[in-house]
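Proteins fold reproducibly. Look at a concrete instance:
___
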Amino acid sequence: MVKEITEASTLGNGLKELEKKGVIIPQTLQKAFGKLYAYTNDETAEIRHSLMGGEDVLFFEESKFMLVACSAFVNYLKLKKSRY
């Protein structure tokens, strides 16, 4: 959704570009989204890279949390975008 709004190639860059596109998000919330994305890249969490060799199993709780959090983020951005 960030890429659709900003055309940025990465989430980090896109979060910075949202304001230029009229989607104003509080700075603290921007940082929280960035940190949540960083969590998905954490090799020990194995959220995005669970098939890359680790023996740990991705648990339902983490999967459901990320699905719901990402869905909420997309819906939040859609509403913010429609306001401007």
Remarks:
- The chain has a mean pLDDT of 84.
